[in-house]
């Protein structure tokens, strides 16, 4: 395991997420929206390695698909996470962060948030802080609405702006095919478009769709497909009309469920089982030539991988 000796580099493997439900309430005074959401981690991972650096120094390197789309180091959420942790609990520490991207960048899968979560966990261990999970969750909520969930991984219901979480135990594995998009979508822009489509007075308080948690507990993808819901799909499709063709291709290929992931533009297609996911991916590769297509399982978890493992 990495980080077993004080000062050893620490490696964290952190999954991206999809929202099985993303029910959006009216815009709040603070500009955020109240959500009722069901997060689930999927097996597309970023890997972050944290190595000790001189006091106060925080650096980052990013490699892998879409690394060129990641913003400047000072805007990198992992850097902000390490700085916030340092300022709050370890002002005399520094860290070099190396991020290998596997989660699509700006894909609506919380890749940036996942890196922030990984940085919090890795620096906590590297700097020997041993903070309780609650302390990291609290810092996560300061960094972004999705960071607390990416710290937990697995499956959780989220309320508030997504940071108030209740973990959900799911014993069944679900199989998804994800189709990413070369060009990202801005989350604030998608929420702004939601506001234009739905004047606040017309938007009811959000609730998790009936039957969704029961379908997860029962492990039935067909039942789960009936309850999937994403209120950001409509604004995302207005900003990116080409996503309609992607969703149609999944339907044609025989997906039991289909949705835009989060604020998009990644599209997620639910399969009946592992074999069906492979068949679906093959059909999608034919229907959508040149696109990145990933077969994944859910839920997935965050962790410290063993040295030498993939
Ligand atoms: O919290 P985070 O930094 O990820 O949010 C990015 C943007 O997405 C916010 O500035 C806001 O415009 C929008 N957002 C929102 N309601 C939420 C979460 C995010 O309006 N619950």
Account of the protein in words:
With 310 residues, the protein is α+β, with helices and mostly antiparallel strands. It folds into two domains: 10-167, Ribosomal Protein S5, domain 2, CATH 3.30.230; 174-298, Alpha-Beta Plaits (2-Layer Sandwich), CATH 3.30.70. 33% of the residues lie in helices and 27% in strands. The chain is built from ten helices and eleven strands. Strands 1, 2, 3, 4, 5, 6 and 8 form a seven-stranded mixed beta sheet that branches. Strands 9-10-7-11 form a four-stranded antiparallel beta sheet, with helices on both faces. It is globular and about 55 Å long. The mean pLDDT is 95. The structure holds cytidine-5'-monophosphate.
Tags for this model:
alpha+beta, Ribosomal Protein S5, domain 2, Alpha-Beta Plaits, four-stranded antiparallel beta sheet, 10 helices, 33% helix, binds cytidine-5'-monophosphate
> What is the correct CATH architecture of the largest domain?
2-Layer Sandwich
Mean pLDDT: 95
Which stretches are poorly predicted, pLDDT < 50 over at least 5 residues?
A: none
Molecular shape: globular
Q: Measured on Cα atoms, how large is the radius of gyration?
A: 19 Å
Summarize the main sheet.
7 strands, mixed
Proportion of β residues? 25-35%
Question: Which CATH class of the largest domain is shown?
Answer: Alpha Beta
